[in-house]
Amino acid sequence: MNNQPGPHYRNQLNRVSQILGCRIVFQDSLFGPQNAPTWTSICMVNGIEYGRGSGPNKNIAQEQAAYQALEAFRVQYPGMF
Predict the structure, then answer these.
(1) Above 80 in pLDDT, residue 72?
(2) Strands in the chain per DSSP E
(3) Which residues of 48-71 are buried (b: 16+ CB within 10 A; e: fewer)?
(4) Distance, CA of 57 to CA of 40 (rounded, Å)
(5) How far apart are CA 19 and CA 53, in angstroms?
(6) Interior CA angle at 64 toward 46 and 34, to 5°?
(7) Phi, psi of 62 (to 5 degrees)
(8) pLDDT in tens, 14-25
(9) Which residues, in sequence order, are bridge partners of residue 38?
(10) pTM of the prediction?
């Protein structure tokens, strides 16, 4: 996976979750020194981890996690996307 995810994966994931009736929650945590933090975001779908991402800010971490969750949905529901 590319370290710089494309824009709007969270928006795409929200649209998919509305179609499927899923609940999406991001669990975010911050590690490292204040001058060089690393954010980790876990994308939970109905309480199950579907994606995980990390990066220098929360938005990048959430976008990576959303990308992984979308890829998992593509495998789980082939032909839907």
Answers:
(1) yes
(2) 24-31, 38-45, 48-55
(3) eebbebbbeebebbbbbbbbbbbe
(4) 9
(5) 24
(6) 110
(7) -70, -40
(8) 999 999 999 999
(9) 31
(10) 0.87
